[in-house]
Structure formats: C-alpha cells, structure tokens
Amino acid sequence: MADSTNTGRRKRQREPKRVLPTINQLDWTIPTYVDQPTEPLNADALARVDNAAMRILEEIGIDFLHPEAIQILVDAGCVNESGSQRVTMDRELVRAMVSKAPESFELIPRNPDHRIVWGGNIFTFGAVASPPNVSDIENGRRVGNRKDFQDLLRLSQTFNCIHFNSGYPVEPVDIHASVRHLDALYDKLTLTDKICHAYSLGPERVKDTIEMVRIAAGLSHDEFREKPRMFTNINSSSPLKHDWPMLDGAMTMARYGQPVVVAPFTLAGAMAPITLAGALAQQTAEALAAIVLLQIINPGNPVVFGAFTSNVDMKSGAPAFGTPEYVRAMQISGQLARHYKLPWRGSNANAANTPDAQSMWESMFSLMGSTSGQANMILHAAGWLEGGLTASFEKFIMDCEIIQQFMYYQQPISTSDDALAIDTIAEVGPNGHFLGCQHTQDRYLDAFYSPFLSDWSNYEAWEVNGAIDTPRRAHNLYKKLLKEFVPPPMDDATNEELKEFVERRRREGGAKTDF
Fold first, then answer.
1. Residues 6+ apart with CB under 8 A from 264
2. Which of 2, 283, 357, 373 could join 334 via S-S bond, C-beta 3.0 to 4.6 A?
3. Which of 317, 233, 331, 238 has its CA nearest to residue 276?
4. H or E element that contains 87
5. Mind listing the pLDDT tens digit for each residue in 143-164?
6. 156-173: buried (b, 16+ CB within 10 Å) or exposed (e) per residue?
7. Using an 8 Å Cβ cutoff, are 110 and 100 in contact?
8. Which residues neighbour 25 within 8 Å (Cβ) at sequence distance 6 or greater?
C-alpha cells in the first residue's frame, strides 16, 4: 500500500443535518441473546460429528489451490504429497491452531459509535450481499447497477438494525470489474459509516480496500493494524477445496490482523452428503482447514466459523433455503462453533422469486435457525431473494421489520414489583379495565413493540386507505426513505484523499480480472 500524507490525525467531521425519522425504528444497539441456545445434538452425537470432521482432515484432506498456502501448512507439520494440492492435517495440530483464535472480538468502523462485537452472546445483522440482480415491484428484475447499489447502501445506513455492510448489496455490473471495487468501496465508505467488507478475490482488491478503510477512518498504518476495522468472507469450493483468489485475500487479511469469516457453502445432496450429519461434518472440516492456515500465518487472528449448510430440491437440483434441514443445520453449527470456542455466522436466506408469503416464511425459518442457534453475525439479513440471485428493495424493508422484532424479542423480561403490578391489579379489580389506570398511562407509549410496516387497522379502514398490501407499503416506504436520506458526515480532506486514491489506482489499472 502506498504511504499517505495522513499519519493518524483525527479528522474533524461536519455535523449532519437533523432529519426527523420517517419510521419508528429501534435505537442503534448491539443486541444480546437472553435465551439459552437450541442444541439438537447431545454430547455424544456432537462428539461424533467433530470426530468425523477430524477424520476428513486426517484421512481424506482438503485441496488448497495456492502453492504458498500449501508450503505454510507443510512447514507447520501438515502433509502434502508431491505434485498434489491435497493437504492432510493431524487433529492435535487442528485443535492447537483453532484454540489460538479469540472467542470474541470488537470491530471498529470509521464511526466508532457503530462499533460491533462478534462472539459471546451478541448477535448482529448485515444486509444482503453479492446478488447480480436487483428488483422492485415498479421496475421489475434487472441487472445490478451503481444507482441501485448506492440506494441499497442508503437503506443499510438508515436502518439501525443493520449493523454491518457485507459484500456489495447488489453487484454494480455497469462498472468494469477491474475498477469496480474502487468505486464501490468509495460509495460504501461515504454513504455509510458502519463496518464494511473486502472481497477476497486476489491481492489487489483486498489491499485497496484496506487502504481505503484506513484513509476513511483517519488512521496511520500502525493504528489500522491495532484493531479489527473491516472483514472478509471466504467460501470453500465444496466439496473439499479452497481456491486461490479467496485464500490469497484471506491470507492478506490475516497478515494485517483483520477478521476472516470462513463459510463453506455446502448443499446437502449436491455439494455435500445428503445426510445432515455428513454435510455438517464436511462443512466443519472445510472451515477448520482454512482457520488452521490463518492461525499459522498470524496466531490469534480473529476468525469466524461460517455455516451455510442447506439442502437442494431433489426434484430439480435447485438450492432450497429456510427449510427444516436448514434450521437444524444452523442450530448444530452453533453447537459446533461453541465447541471450538469460535464466533459463528448464520444467514437469512430464501428461495422465493418475489417478496411474497414464501419469501417471508422461509426467511422466518432461516432467522429462527440462526438466532435459536445463537449466531453472532447474520449475513444477508435484509433484501435476499431468489436464492441469492436478486436483491429486492421491498424485501429489504420487510426483513428489517422482522429482524427488529427478533432483536426486541431477546430483551430481558423484568419481574420487579413495578412490573408485576400487584397494586394495579388490586386497583382495577374484577370489574374494571387497565386502559385508563395510571400504570398503563405511564407506559403505553413504549410498552410494546411498535412496527413501522405492519398495518393493524381493521378491514374497512384498510380498504378505505387503498387496500395496500405489504410489498406495496414496503415499496412506498423505501422510496420515501431514499428521498430523506442524508449521508453520514465525512471531513472534506478525507473525502478528497479517498477520491485521489481511487483515481490513482484507476490509472494503474485496478485489479486483475483473470487468474
């Protein structure tokens, strides 16, 4: 990375304009689980899945399509037969390396007020990431573009229940792939001030993202390395393979001390065994193999155990999400992550093609699996459609309503004398009602969750008001929120430094598009 004239000075930021909120949303907070996690497997069954994963690593091995990664693993005691990309590793080495990773860690974006934690009993949500298409009910489904990409970022910044930005909320295909990451990261860093993500697609994109995040936060190179400031997510190429671009990006991130989420994409019946136990054993082996590599490179580097095991429709071969199998896979993945003392990632996924009832019941099952299994980061939480091929504006709004309720649901229940309300019950007695009593009057404004999207009017009132269904209400709301959006403040000098970096890297050609 090129040196910068900024060597750690803190930038004075302009105060944003005050904007009255259109929606009655929850305040920014980092929610915590109060319930106990759902754990479908007993200790013996969990040990059997763990043992199967270790046998895969010891007896079968994982292909690493990266010569340097192979050499690093061999130097640490792993086995690679000459001329092969297959690496096997002893379970004692695996356990020793995995134990070096932290159980939880804090990530600090350019706005420290939006810092988050991954691990423990904390859970956070990120917006949809990486679909090639975008849709809304007015303009239909279309190929991703920069305007829609920017608008989805604006929604991500607007909603307090979105804690971090993952990959691109839709791929801005109208920007050439060699420089897309430069423009996209500039938009992400200026339209939002939350934790952001770097694509591990070779060295240039990761290093450019690191430098841009550093500039936006006003940090020196040393200050940047002191704390997690961003993250990357890599997927194995199931079955049993890690490819070069993702490995290279993840290795670069580890050398800078930045978190890596390792999330195998294992679909039972296609890319993994058709049995749930077999698919989870394979998922675990693929995830731990990469985590071992990253801990060898930088012992103690923050990592996240990623889970994305679902099943396919055996009639068509199409991916299925929000299924009973997906729910159980997430819950058991949570058990496994806690067994290895690692933070873990779940997802909100569905296979519906439009923001309809199917999209919401599948999302509810996905979120139930992720939250009952106590995922620390839930990717694709808002806006995912069509098995991840489309980002939907209406679904984004509908999902935010749901994830707010999951956050609210996990609030502790008070059993104080005031909450038990014995005196009030005595005051009202058997012949009165509680609507007019002082206990109710003192609390009615915030006693219950108040939705911003649901319509609780009766049928006649709903009909008089235009009989607007949920997707149309979501459409109208997202349009209104975009009109009212004010970007988070950024110092003019910082903004100019970011622009100069983007332009210089554009002149240099950006990133390779072929490997």
1. 235, 236, 238, 282, 283, 286, 287, 306, 308, 309
2. 373
3. 331
4. strand 86-88
5. 999 999 999 999 999 999 999 9
6. bbbbbbbbbbbbbbbbbb
7. no
8. 159, 160, 161, 400, 404, 452
